[in-house]
Amino acid sequence: MGLERSILMVNAGDKNRQELLRLGISVLFIAGIIIFLTMRGGEVSFLLVVAAIIGGYMALNIGANDVANNVGPAVGSKALTLSGAVIIAAIFEAAGALIAGGDVVGTIKSGIISPDAAANPEIFVWLMMAALLAGAIWLNLATASGAPVSTTHSIVGGVLGAGIAAGGWEMVNWDQMGAIAASWVISPLMGGSIAAAFLYLIKRTITYQSDMVAAAKKMVPILVAFMAWAFTTYLVMKGLNKIWKVGFGTAAMIGFGVAIFAYFFTLNRVSAVLNRLRNDKQGVNSLFVVPLIFSAALLSFAHGANDVANAIGPLAGINDAILKGAATSKASIPLWVMMVGAIGIVLGLALYGPKLIKTVGSGITELDQMRAFCIAMAAAITVIIASQLGLPVSSTHIAVGGVFGVGFLREFLKANYGRMIDTIENHHQDEDRAVVDAYLEKFRAADFATKGAMLLELKANQQAVLDSHLSKKERKDLKSVYKKELVKRSALYRIAAAWLITVPASALMAAIFFFMIRGMMLP
Q1: Reported pTM
Q2: What is the pLDDT, as a whole number, of residue 458?
Q3: Pick from 410, 371, 378: which is nearest to 488 by CA?
Q4: What is the predicted pLDDT for the residue at 133?
């Protein structure tokens, strides 16, 4: 008993030391921002220093929460180790932010409030500081509770609440807010549906076939080629849009060229390892490892290029307002502001990201490489479709919706398979067990079409037997036996609740912070 207690105390001490180390590195990052601003020469603005601290804090929380969506499925499926995922994401997040982050950013986020709400530069600075702080704190709380939330929605809520506090309800663009609210439903449903559709396609064409290796040789190059097209098109349209503006047609043609190369490259690779592949799911899964690594890197690059604005947009606007003495809806981004966002996101990911990576990768449902591949596909395709239709979507909601989509499809297929086995068992219930086992083995090894034919032979007679012996209530109870929950309901309820209250919670905090800041700054 004494030894066990000692071990528990040592483990608790190790966790405390790790937490202190993470906190210490975060404080050093914030201190570095302060030192840079105070030593770069010229007059130092107190408001700018405070805003930069809040911006750095926001960047840390974006890295801790949002990046998990890009690499979580790859880690959960064991295509990447946790440390490997953190390294890849850190490199490509920073590259996306610094190379393709653009030199101008919007300050009135998503046009949700009128610029008239912040015509006074002092009011504008207070508004942006309150919005940043509220968004960052909400992200921090969500990360601590293990809930992946949209950083865009967090800062949108912050701007909304501070804007109302600064200029009243009439300053809000409620049509735009309605579109953002619609994305709470659109994003996860589209992501989940597309991910589930791809998983079902893979099952029908590969894993439900008796010769999985031969089926994989035919289908995997096509799937990887389609993935190459989707990710190239997505990257050109969204990841590089701030430095290279092209339409969907041009992006799709570039993607088509990359897809042709990917097809023949993958075909050669699959042919080379064909003789070594096991004729089971594990063998087929191994073919999706490399595409998953590429998807994690490209999603991270696109995220860094786009979502770094959530951290530095308000900070760039504050810097612009202080330097020019006027508030604008667009602001130029100095290099130091971009570095605050890029370094903060990378540090947040490395220090606090693993918790959310584990949540997305394994805390919702069990993922293998095929399922993770489908989630990555859903992330790219949903953004492409939504962009063409003008629908607002959240990358966080898409990715997490994709995880839920493959999980619920697995539940449905497991229940359906359970009913099939029960039909066979009941039909052969008076026969020798060896005969039953032989038939079940034949059924399991059959391809999809053969399974269907075998069941058709049994179903009519079996249903008649069941209907004659079971009441309606008993048949309903029997169906519930096959319902095996492969999606953790506690995770579903926690994440859904966090999504619903993200905008209201950050808006309320931002309004409170605005009044507090204004009260401190007014003479």
Answers
A1: 0.85
A2: 59
A3: 410
A4: 95
Report residue 330 as tokens. 């667009």
Domain of 157 in residue numbering reads as 20-411+486-521
Q: Which segments within 91-224 are labelled E, that is strand? A: 104-106
Phi/psi class of residue 483: alpha, beta or left (left: φ > 0; alpha: ψ in -120 to 50)? Answer: beta
C-alpha dist (Å) from residue 438 to 169, 415, 430, 448, 449:
71, 22, 15, 18, 19
Cα 377 to Cα 201: distance, rounded to the nearest angstrom:
13
Q: Could you tell me how far CA 255 lies from the centroid of its own chain?
A: 22
Q: How far apart are CA 467 and CA 465, in angstroms?
A: 6
Enumerate residues 6+ apart whose C-beta is below 8 A from 347. Answer: 25, 26, 29, 59, 60, 63
The interaxial angle of helices 369-389 and 212-234, nearest 10 deg, is 40
- Phi-psi group of 325: left, alpha or beta (phi > 0 → left; psi -120 to 50 → alpha; rest → beta): left
Instruction: Determine contact, residues 392/185, Cβ cutoff 8 Å.
Output: no
pLDDT for position 152? 85
Question: How many domains is the chain partitioned into structurally?
Answer: 1
Q: Is residue 454 part of a domain?
A: no
In a domain, 348, yes or no: yes
Task: Give the pLDDT score at 307.
Answer: 73
- Residues lower than pLDDT 50 in the chain: 1, 464-472, 474-476, 478, 481
439, part of any domain = no
Phi, psi dihedral angles at 113 (to 5 degrees): -130, 155
Backbone angles phi, psi at 330, to 5 degrees: -130, 145
Q: Which tokens hold the place of 247?
A: 């339409």
pLDDT for the residue 222: 96
Residue 43 lies in a domain: yes
Q: What angle do CA 125, 128, 133 make, to 5 degrees?
A: 125
